[in-house]
User: What shape does this take?
Amino acid sequence: MSVTAPAQEATTSTEIIETDAVVIGAGPCGLFAIFELGLLDIKAHVVDILDRAGGQCAELYPEKPIYDVPALPTVTGQELTDRLMEQIKPFGAEFHFSEQISTLSREADGRFRLTTDAGTEFLTKVVIVAAGGGSFTPKRPPLAGIEDYEGKSVFYSVRKIEQMRGKDVVIVGGGDSALDWTLNLAPVANSLTLVHRRDEFRGAPHSVDKMRKLVADGSVRLLIGQVTALEGAGGELSSLQIKTANGVESVPCTAMLPFFGLTMKLGPVADWGLNLHENLIHVDTERFETSEKGIFAIGDINWYPGKLKLILSGFHEAALMAQAAHRIVYPDKKLMFQYTTSSSNLQKKLGVK
Amino acid sequence: MTKITFIQPDGEGQTVEAENGLTVMEAAKLNDVAGIEAECGGACACATCHVYVEQAWREKVGKPSEMEEDMLDFAFDVREESRLSCQIKISDALDGLVVRVPEKQF
Assistant: This one.
């Protein structure tokens, strides 16, 4: 049998996207930034690591009421997101979900080149960091030595189902992610064990039903307990120690998928040379610009004396940021301050006239 | 004022006084008790204010609600006596409450 070259992922030829502004983060502040930028004819592309808009509001408290958004006595996280999406619709911003900006560098002409972890590339005049509390990344179970196994036999997401074929898979979790992957991988895995700390699942009821059927017919093993230790060598797992009501059991495992929800991490933002103040981006209060001209930061991610991590603060910051961004995007254009109530120009852009 | 004692993993105890109506998490934060993160600020949207309720107090403190159980799925080393401290409201009935702080917040 001849040795063939390793299979390569088909490289999609991505054109570099040239734009006026790249907004990092599609939470409430990133979304409202699109509005303020749009009023000033600044076109934006938005990148977010989640698969949808809304940031912390949509991810952490979609159903919970917020009481301090001006003019809205009460509004849920999801409602606020939906309303903002409607408000920014006229500006046709392009969203790049499930991607994270990984590199940022300045070109000779002063523009910024950004790349994402999915290979998307931007050339932009200004960058608005609206990253909130940081990128939502999967929580890492606090098990000794787990980092050594990550990417080799511990995975927080599955890119290809085939990757799990023939493995002894252990999935940990009680929500939709854990259930969906249990259902998806049971047919290809050598063995599949679902571990959850209790016999109640947060996931969709019909997914729970399907899982229980697989347990009943023996395709999936359900273990009520918690993982206490990993065993293996060289990044390859061989088994997991799982504590159940009956004591500690050693379960064969060559692939572990822990689904413990998401946590916010500063991520690559920390590597771009911006002045940080306790992991927050230091900005001025006139332009909300960072230590790098042309890179702005609004919302929870920034810091200035007196800063409050309120959505309404981020909205204000977006408005002032847009004025400053305009001077960079259109250096030769005069910026005339206009009101949406009286400017036919703005109203045309908003599509209300 | 109601007295609450937080016991750290090394056995070190710290007794604080808190007003009724506050949560155990708030009492911890107001008194700089170590080991309680409360990343979400008490919204029951994370699991970083996780504590273990001492056996003698478990009945008075009660069991977690369904929403709290869902969030406890994201904590680590969850035990029968686990509660999210932001969901425990302080009242006279809990005067003298003792809780243990876990090794780490997930």
